[in-house]
């Protein structure tokens, strides 16, 4: 970690997330920090944080707290790369560094009773996030979405701060009405 801006962000994000255990309050406290961090991205993003792959969007770890209570990734989205339908089981704050990141939401119609079957989802709205934009989400009920870049747009790069080490998330099969936990890969910093 070589940037004072990144060090300050990590210190403030750690302190604020500890002070605000409620996830909705936590993202309120952290979103302004992300807004500022985007503008400092040039001071700490290095070539390894821009790694990408033709196989799919690429998650590059920037910081992982020793107690795994906080993690920060850069994600690189090449044209046409999308996540599956998922939620994170965590709060998250996302900031866009380059390009336009698109988020398409899903709305859960069936009550969330913790079961992984008989889940009814319908498609919701979309948001288009340019450089400088910040969005966030909280769990319980989880925020279900797909995120990515349509084939006709150029590369996007975004920063993702989560309330845990994000090594797995919940994947939904909308047609089968099911979800399952799945490990997700990342590149080490
Ligand atoms: Fe997500």
From TrEMBL:
InterPro entries: CDO_1 (IPR010300), RmlC-like_jellyroll (IPR014710), RmlC_Cupin_sf (IPR011051). The keyword Metal-binding applies. Gene3D superfamilies: Jelly Rolls. Fe cation binds at residues 86, 88, 145. Keywords: Dioxygenase, Iron, Metal-binding, Oxidoreductase. Pfam families: CDO_I (PF05995). GO terms for molecular function: ferrous iron binding; oxidoreductase activity, acting on single donors with incorporation of molecular oxygen, incorporation of two atoms of oxygen. Belongs to the cysteine dioxygenase family. This is Cysteine dioxygenase. It comes from Noviherbaspirillum cavernae.
